[in-house]
Amino acid sequence: MSKSKVWLLLPVIxxxxxxxxxxxxxxxxxxxxxxxxxxxxxxxFDPTGIAATFPASVPQLVGWTRVxxxxxxxxxxxxxxxxxxxxxxxxxxxxxxxxxxWSRKSINGQTGKWRLDVKGPDGTVIGSQEFEVVKEGAAxxxxxxxxxxxxxxxxxx
Length: 157
Hints:
This protein has about 160 residues and is an alpha+beta fold. It has one helix spanning about 5-25, and strands at about 35-40, 40-45, 45-50, 55, 60-70, 75-80, 85-95, 100-105, 110-120, 125-135. The chain has a domain at about 30-135: Immunoglobulin-like (Sandwich), CATH 2.60.40.2550.
């Protein structure tokens, strides 16, 4: 091959080598999607006490996330926000293409409109879940289902 043809191909080869070099970094987090739930606890890797409104007396809440599509181990961040002000940012490892992870946030009676943002490895928000913490009496009370006889629930021993 003549030297002039090599010089003509050199920019093309360099352009493709840059694309190939950047590919793993972009694909590691570019196809990530999340499912978010806010609850009061975790049992067997799943959230419990899921709701959109919580009483101010709740000591802490759990932000649960199911991450899918990570092509390599990555780190996501849970950002807890109250009335537009960031209260906490917690980095969480994602170790496989389908992965469940969670963070906990102490509430300490802080009422208002909350939001949990989930940021991907590049820092962009890939999911959000809004919820509210309200003063006692403002949230609808959750009563146990009544039995047909009206005497309440059952007891197991």
